[in-house]
Here is the input.
Amino acid sequence: EPEVTQTPSHQVTQMGQEVILRCVPISNHLYFYWYRQILGQKVEFLVSFYNNEISEKSEIFDDQFSVERPDGSNFTLKIRSTKLEDSAMYFCASSMTLNYNEQFFGPGTRLTVL
Amino acid sequence: GNSVTQMEGPVTLSEEAFLTINCTYTATGYPSLFWYVQYPGEGLQLLLKATKADDKGSNKGFEATYRKETTSFHLEKGSVQVSDSAVYFCALRENRDDKIIFGKGTRLHILP
Here is the structure.
C-alpha cells in the first residue's frame, strides 16, 4: 500500500541553524500539507501546497518557514533560523483531491532545537 | 473560529471493555468529521469519517455518529483489544478548506 515517508525521523539542531525536513508524498497525489505537534499540544496546520504554490497557510507559518517541491517526488519544509519553540513533531500529509478526500499522513519528524 | 474538544486522557481500560471517547466541535459551516489514530512510532491514520449530519462512520469495530444537534462525534467500540492502545484524535475539516483541525488527542491504554 502506498504511503507517505518522511526523513529524518529525528533531527537535533542548534538554535539559529537552518533545517530541512523532507517528505515523499504518495505518487499520484496533488495536494501536500505540513502540520506540527508541539509535545502535549494539538496537531496544528502549517501550510498546504498545490500546483507548485502555497494555497493556504496558518499564522504560525511566518517568514522563517518555506516549502518547496524541488522535483517530482519530494516535498520539503525549511526552517531558516530555528528557535527553541520550533521543537515539535512535524507531519507531512498528501491527498489526491481537496474536498472530502482523506489526507494521508507520514510518520513524522521529531525536531529538537537546543 | 473552528475548534475540536475531546476528553482528556489517558484512558485505561481492561480488554473487552466498552469504550467511549467524547468529542465535540465548533464550526461555522458544515464540516466533515474524522477520527485519526496514531499507533506507537507511526503516523496519523484515518480511522473513520462522516461527511454530513446523522452519518455514521465505522471501521475496525469503532463507530462514531455525526450529531449536528449536539455538535458531537463520540468514538465508541463495544469490546476493546490490547492492540487498540494508541492515541486517538478527533478532527474536522470545513468544505473547500485545506486544513484539518485536530483535537488534543486521547491516549488509550488497554490492559490484558
User: Anything to note?
Assistant: The two ends of chain B are 41 Å apart (CA to CA). Chain B touches chain A at residues 32, 36, 41-46, 49, 51, 89, 91, 95-105 (CB under 8 Å). The longest strand of chain B covers residues 86-93.
